[in-house]
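input
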Amino acid sequence: MYRILVSVLLAVGLTVGGCAQKKGSKSTVAIENSTDSLSYAIGLSIAGSFEDQDLKDLNLDLIKKAMADKFAGTPVMEPEACEAFVQKELQARQDRKFESNQGDGEAWLAENAKKDGIKITDSGLQYEVVTEGTGASPDENDDVTVHYKGTLTNGETFDSSYDRGAPATFGVNRVIKGWTEGLQLMKEGGKFKFYIPQELAYGANPRPGGIIEPYMPLVFEVELIQVTAKD
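output
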């Protein structure tokens, strides 16, 4: 709900300055003043937000009635209950939309686990030792400097420090669970491949705007360059 409202306000801020009715428009609604423009702009922004979140099946008559009830002070649902229901239903819709990712990912990991050299931890993290390091191993409170490449199970790259031309430095406990666990298995100078189940990666909430969909397992090639112990 909050994301919908924020996108509405942003869109309105960008468009409402001069929202004139399009020439040749077949709409039967007249836009005659700034209030009309604001009203129509907000409607378009809300519709765009709903479309972006695949909510085009909503009952527009009930949306209109709910807004009228709110303004009249006669809503039939409590705001807190509405917020909880919206969050629950949006999550359920997302789960249904991407549920195949979870099954496909589990099947892919099951096949991958049969390959020579694949080791599996109690959490389900799969890893492969490409080069065994000889230096220090990090703990969860340390910083590490690494080179890495992240791909989907189909081999499509979504992130790579190699492509950026510089290694990355970050805290071991400030990344996804699969990384936090896997890094502590490594030593400086080592290179591993991590095969990370979705529950140890981004689960239902991947970073927005990227190619990672909910419930996707991820694959990383990781070179541990340096461990920096924190004071």
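quick obs: The first helix runs from residue 2 to 15.
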